[in-house]
Specification:
mainly alpha
Length: 173
């Protein structure tokens, strides 16, 4: 972290976004290649030209680890308007637990790729973790809150309001 000259909170944003991206990928494609060439759960510092598709549980292991790390090191208030915070990490961790629990339970008997076993007996534990994390997020809103009306959420002059938890900012250039 800080020893490498990178602030822990800034590194936490990188962990958040790696988890965010892998979470989108695993929901869309199932298992995807984890490019963690510097070692398990480490940032990649070496390039490789081959890839192997990891299983869904292997991908979620990285997502959970990255979001837990981000949660511990992110600030309560955004570093910049619209940047990642503790509560954003809580909400994504809750959603990741929830989707993983559903995947484990597999109520619609959907095949997975690459093939791997699913321990449906673990689903309830992840549903509970999702609930607990969501409850923590609701109880600790930080700088976030609902706008008074639907209009206030959507009017262009209020595009940086307290309901918006993450966005890529821009300027006129």
């Amino acid at each position: 972290g800080a020893a490498a000259g990178i602030d822990d909170a800034l590194l936490a944003e990188a962990y958040f976004f790696r988890a965010f991206d892998y979470f989108i990928l695993v929901q869309t494609y199932g298992g995807v290649p984890l490019d963690l060439g510097a070692g398990e759960l480490k940032f990649n510092t070496t390039t490789i030209r081959t890839s192997v598709r990891n299983t869904v549980p292997e991908v979620y292991k990285v997502i959970f680890s990255d979001l837990e790390k981000a949660l511990s090191d992110l600030p309560d208030n955004p570093r910049l308007t619209g940047s990642a915070t503790k509560n954003l990490a809580r909400l994504y961790l809750s959603k990741a637990y929830l989707t993983y629990a559903w995947w484990l339970e597999n109520p619609n008997n959907i095949p997975t790729y690459p093939e791997c076993s699913r321990d449906a007996g673990q689903a309830q534990r992840y549903f509970q973790k999702a609930f607990d994390m969501a409850k923590q997020a609701i109880d600790n809103p930080g700088p976030y809150g609902l706008q008074p009306t639907f209009y206030d959420v959507n009017v262009a002059t209020n595009d940086r309001n307290s309901e918006i938890m993450l966005y890529a900012d821009h300027n006129e250039n």
